[in-house]
Design a protein that fits this description.
The protein is an alpha/beta fold. The chain contains 3 helices and 5 strands; from the N terminus they run ββαβαβαβ. It has a 5-stranded mixed sheet, covered by helices on one side. The radius of gyration is 13 Å and the shape is globular. 27% of the residues are buried.
Amino acid sequence: MCGVVFKHPSEKTLYIAGDTVWYEAIQETIKTHKPETIVVNGGDNQFLQGGSLVMGKEDIYNVYKAAPGSKIISIHMEAVNHWTLSREELSSYINDREISSNVLVPDDGETYTF
């Protein structure tokens, strides 16, 4: 589990959660730093044994619930051969919950400016 927060008085606070799943420390980091932009590694990557290595759709939804005013970008999608959550499935999940204006699932090479 890893993550880093970037803060500067002239910029929005950015939290890069890195390779992690949702757990208490993620919620505490969001509560403490109040990031406007959060980058999560999605894809629900898994090995044959053990649990998820990065966030799945429920984890990403928990990030949204902890920071409903933030822009959340799910990257690392379909990037390695052990992903179990596709962009299409995550986008559908996000649309069903009507949070697509806050939770973004970029295509390869797509960029955002905030």
